[in-house]
Every structure is written in structure tokens, then in C-alpha cells.
């Protein structure tokens, strides 16, 4: 029977296992000694072919693996396995994404794992990749997940990804991993872990950060998740009333501490949790004050994820931000329950956000 691609790949890979480029003729020689061919294998596959069938099979396997990034090819009929500095092959990326997701599932369940041990166990499935190269690829995976508005492993800080294949593999794996999607759902729906309040004055200064250069709209997040997983994390968090209340309570503590720090303790006692005391139809959550005693109206948006996470705003909030102008401020609380940070957007939100409608009111 003709030799299958699966059985041919191992001896071909063995022929390519040393560093540097290997000539096709050398691959033929290795394969011929590694596999016993019967008479049928040695016959041409077509009447006009001058090559034995098994040699044609070798070339077919090489072509197939080349299309998957498993083999690199030169015009001089030389081949080699990818090594450090070369793009990662499909099998390398697939194995690395699967391993990363196993660690992520453990982290989402608050279970411990050893990153170094995972790195070592992954190495045999890779083409001579260093420990550092594997860690960079893990950071690339974090970056893709962050772009998609999904949680990532805290210990692997996002590092920009340049390989198109990586995102494709991540999307495929997300769609097939129901357990991971369920854990995302649970994380988005549950309250944040309790956040410690400030211990000293300097803690307050470390909370505030600059806004990101470009702020994603909710539609951006929706599009990314539709292609990647069956969950819109930003939307789920927006529906998490307990998380929203926790974020508002946190901002109230920030405002009171800020006013005390600038010598306006008299105003700190007047900070109002408007959405709780008067209802949530005002278009903002908190009434506070600036250093001159003028009222400022604060809308709070909270996420357990990073600064790049998209968020939802209502039509009422948008209109309120325009009507109240400079007295309106949006406090975006991020990294909540881990290391909370806040950036502030002042004034009309429509002038600062990329806003795309996510749904329409239909009238008949």
C-alpha cells in the first residue's frame, strides 16, 4: 500500500533534525532506509511521472508541512525545520496555546501551577525554542487575549503579537474550549475580591493613571468576541451589578481621600452616592466636588481586566456628559480586585470615545 503522510513525516523529520539546510536527495536517502517500500510503492503514481511513487509522496509531505510552517524551503531544493529566529510552525503554536490555556484555567480557579514546569514539558513539542522564546510566545498570547477583551495569565504581561497564525489558533481553541468559556462567564458574573483601601497618602497618588491613547468602544469588543469566543466579557461585566457597586464604593473612598488631602475635609463629608441614594437614572453615579467647592458628577465604569478593556455607556450617560460638560467626569476603574487603577475622562464622552451603536430601537 502507498505510504501515508503520517508514517512518512517521522523519517523526513529525522532527516531534517540537524541544524542547517538539507538537500532533497539526502532526505530521499534517509527515508528509503527508514521505511521498507514494497513493489507498489516504487511504481510511478502517474504514467507520465519519472519519479518513483514514494519519492513523490515525500515531496507531497514536504509541501504539506511547508504550508503549515513545519518546514522551511529554499529554491535550491533544500529544506529545514524552523529554529530560533524563524516563524513558529502551526504545531508549535497549537501546542503552546493549548498549554497556555491549561494554565489560564488553573489561574481562573485560583489553583496554583508551575510556569517553569509547563515551559519544560512544552519544549519537546517545539523546534529548539529557548525558555525565553516560549515565555515571549506566552506574552504574545496574553496580548491577543487582551485585544479580544478576555482575561489572560497575570504573570505573562502582554507583549505585542506579530504572527497572524497565533491569533487564528487562539480563536479556534477558544471556540472549542467550553470549559474555558464557562470560567470566563463565571469570572465576569462574580463580584471582585475585596480591595484594600489606602494605608498612606502616597497610595492615592499611585491610583491615578493617564487614559490609554485609544479607547475602544463596546462594539470593538463585541466584534472581537464574536470571532473568538461565545462571551462578550465587557457586556457581562456591565451586567454585573455587584461589581458596579463595588467600583462605585471604591471611587467614593478615593474622592473623600482626595478632598481630605487638598484640605477640603468639609467637602469630603458631603460626597454623595447618587445612584444608590436617589436612583440610577441621573446619568452619573457620584456627586463630589473640586478644590473650589464646585460640584462634579462622576460616572463609574469598573473592570477586573486591564486598562485596554472596552466598556459600555448608555445614551443617558452620553447625553448627561454633553449637558454637564466640564463638570462631568468618567472614572474608569481597572485591574479591580488585583491592583486597582483609575483614569479619568472629563467632559463630553462622544468627543473622547470611539462609539459605535450595539443595538437599535425598532418601531413599527
What do you see in this structure?
With 364 residues, this protein is of the alpha+beta class. The chain folds into three domains: 5-80, Arc Repressor Mutant, subunit A (Orthogonal Bundle), CATH 1.10.10; 90-189, no CATH class; 201-351, no CATH class. The protein contains 15 helices and seven strands. The protein has helices spanning 5-15, 24-34, 53-67, 90-108, 115-122, 131-147, 164-176, 178-189, 201-207, 218-228, 233-238, 241-261, 265-268, 274-277, 315-324, and strands spanning 22-23, 72-74, 78-80, 286-289, 295-302, 328-334, 341-346. Strands 4-5-6-7 form a four-stranded mixed sheet, with helices on both faces. The chain has a three-stranded antiparallel sheet with strand order 1-3-2. Helix 1 (5-15) crosses helix 2 (24-34), helix 1 (5-15) packs across helix 3 (53-67) and helix 4 packs across helix 7 (164-176). The chain is elongated. Residues 247-344 form the Protein NO VEIN C-terminal domain. InterPro entries: NOV_C. It comes from Fodinibius salicampi. Pfam families: NOV_C. This is DUF3883 domain-containing protein.
Amino acid at each position: 500500500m502507498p505510504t501515508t503522510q503520517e508514517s512518512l513525516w517521522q523519517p523526513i523529520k529525522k532527516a531534517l533534525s540537524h541544524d542547517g539546510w538539507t538537500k532533497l536527495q539526502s532526505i530521499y536517502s534517509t527515508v528509503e532506509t527508514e521505511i521498507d517500500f514494497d513493489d507498489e510503492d516504487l511504481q510511478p503514481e502517474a504514467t507520465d511521472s519519472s519519479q518513483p511513487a514514494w519519492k513523490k509522496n515525500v515531496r507531497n509531505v514536504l509541501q504539506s508541512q511547508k504550508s503549515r510552517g513545519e518546514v522551511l524551503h529554499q529554491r535550491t531544493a533544500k529544506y529545514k525545520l524552523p529554529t530560533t529566529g524563524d516563524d513558529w510552525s502551526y504545531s508549535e503554536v497549537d501546542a503552546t496555546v493549548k498549554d497556555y490555556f491549561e494554565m489560564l484555567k488553573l489561574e481562573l480557579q485560583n489553583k496554583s501551577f508551575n510556569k517553569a514546569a509547563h515551559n519544560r514539558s512544552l519544549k519537546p513539542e517545539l523546534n529548539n525554542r529557548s525558555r525565553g522564546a516560549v515565555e515571549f510566545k506566552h506574552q504574545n498570547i496574553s496580548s491577543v487575549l487582551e485585544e479580544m477583551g478576555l482575561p489572560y495569565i497575570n504573570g505573562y504581561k502582554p507583549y505585542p503579537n506579530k504572527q497572524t497564525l497565533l491569533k487564528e489558533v487562539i480563536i479556534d481553541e477558544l471556540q472549542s474550549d467550553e470549559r474555558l468559556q464557562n470560567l470566563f462567564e463565571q469570572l465576569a458574573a462574580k463580584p471582585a475580591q475585596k480591595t484594600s483601601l489606602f494605608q498612606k497618602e502616597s497610595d492615592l497618588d499611585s491610583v491615578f493613571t493617564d487614559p490609554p491613547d485609544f479607547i475602544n468602544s463596546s462594539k470593538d469588543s463585541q466584534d472581537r468576541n464574536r470571532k473568538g469566543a461565545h462571551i462578550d466579557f465587557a457586556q457581562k461585566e456591565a451586567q454585573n451589578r455587584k461589581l458596579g457597586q463595588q467600583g462605585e464604593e471604591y471611587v467614593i473612598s478615593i474622592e473623600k481621600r482626595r478632598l481630605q488631602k487638598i484640605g477640603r475635609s468639609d467637602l469630603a463629608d458631603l460626597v454623595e452616592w447618587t445612584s444608590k441614594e436617589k436612583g440610577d437614572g441621573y446619568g452619573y453615579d457620584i456627586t463630589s466636588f473640586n478644590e473650589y467647592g464646585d460640584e462634579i458628577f462622576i460616572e463609574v465604569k469598573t473592570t477586573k481586566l486591564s486598562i485596554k478593556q472596552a466598556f459600555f455607556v448608555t445614551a443617558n450617560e452620553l447625553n448627561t456628559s454633553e449637558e454637564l460638560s466640564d463638570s462631568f467626569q468618567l472614572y474608569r476603574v481597572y485591574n479591580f480586585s488585583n491592583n486597582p487603577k483609575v483614569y479619568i475622562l472629563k467632559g463630553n464622552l462622544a468627543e473622547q470615545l470611539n462609539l459605535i451603536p450595539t443595538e437599535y430601537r425598532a418601531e413599527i
